[in-house]
Structures are given as structure tokens and as C-alpha cells.
Automatic annotation (TrEMBL):
Its main location: membrane. This is CysZ-like protein. The keyword Glycosyltransferase does not apply. The chain crosses the membrane at residues 25-52, 73-99, 132-161, 195-218. It comes from the Bacteria. Keywords: Membrane, Transmembrane, Transmembrane helix.
Length: 234
């Protein structure tokens, strides 16, 4: 495991967090997340009103006109509560779509002699974003269940599982810009301990509110440096 590579990459990524291109990706991801959650909430509230109707016939009470309002407000409160938990994984998925911009910003500053990277199509970006979201939700559901059953051992499992998944996703996204998906997978398998350990480092902020929103950006920047270091080793 190349610990020096990980620490150097992480330090250089931290030093670039103020880059305006990093901030643009973060704000874009948050805006899309808020828009999606607001749209889903509005759709659910409208759907409840449409299904229930203006009046409902209840036993003993007869026709009442307030049931749809109560259900609509209940669904609104439910979506607001769920948004607290959905905000991070959804934002991470949206930000993941634009990770190529983060990698490009890192290379422009630290590797200016490189030729232009191959573009990742919007479809590939959406696929990788959806994959990252699904993996994060699934892994965290498993980790949460383990934490409830084994309170002491659950947190290490959380970091280990998320570290593996984050490392896998971010390294692949960054590497395939330069060497294609197949070669990125080969490098990932060859240097799995380093990639996994760096992923655990990225997973640590996941349990810190607000800070966890920058994990995708910090991860993409860190893994850009890691990729270039590992590629030279073959």
C-alpha cells in the first residue's frame, strides 16, 4: 500500500478546495438535489390531493373536506424529514456526474503538460452517478443494520465498506478519462489496497454533517493525483 501517495494526494486535493471550478460543481450538485427533492415533494402532495379529492365520506362523520389537506401536509412533513437523510446520497450522485470537471481542474493546475483527456459522455456520467448512489445507499443500509446489531463493530464496517465503494467509483471515473474503462479496472485491481485505503480516508467525513457534501469533490481530486502516481508504476 502506497501510504505516501495517499497522503500526498490528499494534501494536494485539500489545497485546491478553494478552486472556483470545485465550488461550481458543488453548488450545481446542491441546486439539482434541492430541485429534485422539491419536485418530488410537490408531486406527492399533488398526487395525494388528486387521489383523495376535495371531500371524503367517513363513517359517522359523513362527508368531510379536510382529509386531503391533512394528508398533503403529512406527506410534506414526511418528505422534509426524508430529505435530511436523502440530501447527502442524492447530492453525491449529482456531483458525481460532474466529477470530470474536478479532475480537469486538478490536471490543469498540477499536470499542465498532459494532452486533453478523453471526454466522458453524459450517459456514462449519469450511469456512474446512479451507480455511486445505489452503492452508497445499499452499503449504508447494510452498515446501519450491522450497527444496530453490533453497535461496537458497526462503525468500522461502515468505513471499510464505504471506503471500498468510494475508492472503486472515484478511481474508475478519474482513470477512464485517460486510459479507458478496461485499463482503469486493471489498474484498480492491481493497486486495490492503496485505492481502498484512500477510500476509507474519504469515508471518514461521511459521518460529519455538511462536510460530507464535499466528499465527492475531495475524492475526485485526491484520486486524480493517485491515478497519475499509480499509472507511472504500471
Amino acid at each position: 500500500m502506497a501510504l505516501g501517495v495517499i497522503l500526498s494526494a490528499f494534501a494536494r486535493a485539500l489545497g485546491q478546495l478553494g478552486d472556483r471550478r470545485f465550488r461550481a460543481v458543488l453548488w450545481r450538485g446542491l441546486a439539482l438535489t434541492l430541485g429534485l427533492l422539491a419536485g418530488l415533494t410537490a408531486l406527492l402532495v399533488w398526487g395525494v390531493g388528486a387521489l383523495v379529492g376535495d371531500t371524503v365520506a367517513l363513517p359517522l362523520l359523513g362527508e368531510v373536506a379536510w382529509v386531503d389537506d391533512v394528508l398533503s401536509w403529512a406527506f410534506l412533513a414526511l418528505m422534509i424529514a426524508l430529505s435530511v437523510f436523502l440530501m447527502v446520497p442524492v447530492a453525491a450522485a449529482f456531483v458525481s456526474i460532474f466529477l470530470e470537471e474536478v479532475a480537469g481542474a486538478v490536471e490543469a493546475r498540477h499536470y499542465p503538460a498532459l494532452p486533453p483527456a478523453g471526454e466522458v459522455s453524459l450517459l456514462d456520467g449519469l450511469r456512474d452517478g446512479a451507480s455511486a448512489l445505489g452503492l452508497l445507499i445499499g452499503a449504508n443500509a447494510v452498515a446501519l443494520a450491522l450497527t444496530l446489531v453490533f453497535p461496537i463493530g458497526g462503525l468500522p464496517v461502515f468505513y471499510a465498506v464505504n471506503g471500498l465503494l468510494l475508492g472503486r467509483e472515484y478511481f474508475t471515473v478519474v482513470a477512464m478519462r485517460r486510459v479507458g474503462r478496461a485499463e482503469a479496472a486493471r489498474l484498480r485491481r492491481r493497486h486495490l489496497p492503496t485505492i481502498w485505503a484512500a477510500g476509507v480516508l474519504m469515508a471518514l467525513p461521511l459521518t460529519v454533517p455538511v462536510l460530507n457534501l464535499i466528499v465527492p469533490i475531495l475524492g475526485a481530486a485526491t484520486y486524480t493525483h493517485i491515478f497519475h502516481a499509480l499509472e507511472r508504476r504500471g
